[in-house]
Amino acid sequence: MIDLYYWTTPNGHKITMFLEEAGLEYRIIPINIGKGDQFQPDFLKIAPNNRIPAIVDQKPADGGAPIPMFESGAILQYLAEKTGKFLSADLRKRWETLQWLFWQMGGLGPMAGQNHHFSGYAPEKIPYAIDRYVNETARLYRVLNTQLEGRDFIAGDYSIADMASYPWVVPYERQGQKLEDFPNLKRWFEAIAARPATKRAYELAATINTPKPMTDEEKKVLFNQR
């Protein structure tokens, strides 16, 4: 049993996508980040960076005490190694996948996140910041589009690299992007969207939280912490 501390964000979707693909038994503990659940002491014991997602593996492979885990990329790698799925045992394929997982964690996610913030949430519209992150998002889309030339998925077979990246492309319109400008990425995106596990993950999200405009109070909780 995997306990998943989750909210309906791109990083949260990564983990439900994996769990649905792998068929692992799990239960969701919602962490409403707009209400500040991520700052509760019990959650901070699992995720000291006060960010979702986090997991607790109640039955780790070594048979020992439950293992808590935070950081979505680490969680994906942990679950892949636990199940033997979506991360090849072949040395070269494995490290190609991990390179692209880290690319998402260090590039696509943070840059698209800043894109969302300055384009949609910042109280002051700063043209330089908006242009900076919209352009950087486009550059990263182009990198991914090039990688997908002649291959179905990022590292060949469907893997945790794809699960990490896909949720950050879902809000492409908010990011000022057009998938038609990136034909390989568009094909990849549509293929993942059509997977039954992806559909189940996003249908589950809709039962937990209905997207709506963020209130001023929620913005204070999310953006004014030190």
Give a verbal description of the structure.
By secondary structure, the chain is an alpha+beta fold. The protein has two domains: 2-85 and 207-218, Glutaredoxin; 91-194, Glutathione S-transferase Yfyf (Class Pi), Chain A, domain 2. The chain is 55% helix and 8% strand. It has nine helices and four strands. The chain has a four-stranded mixed sheet with strand order 2-1-3-4, covered by helices on one side. Helix 4 (91-121) packs antiparallel against helix 5. The relative contact order is 0.15. The mean pLDDT is 96.
Please, what is the average pLDDT? Answer: 96
Class based on secondary structure composition and strand pairing: alpha+beta
Helix and strand succession? Answer: EHEHEEHHHHHHH
Helix content: 55-70%
**What is the level 1 CATH name of the largest domain?**
Mainly Alpha
Overall morphology: globular
CATH topology of the largest domain: Glutathione S-transferase Yfyf (Class Pi), Chain A, domain 2
Could you describe the largest sheet, including whether it forms a barrel?
4 strands, mixed
Q: Ranges with pLDDT <50 over ≥5 residues?
A: none
Strand content: 5-15%
User: How many β-strand stretches?
Assistant: 4
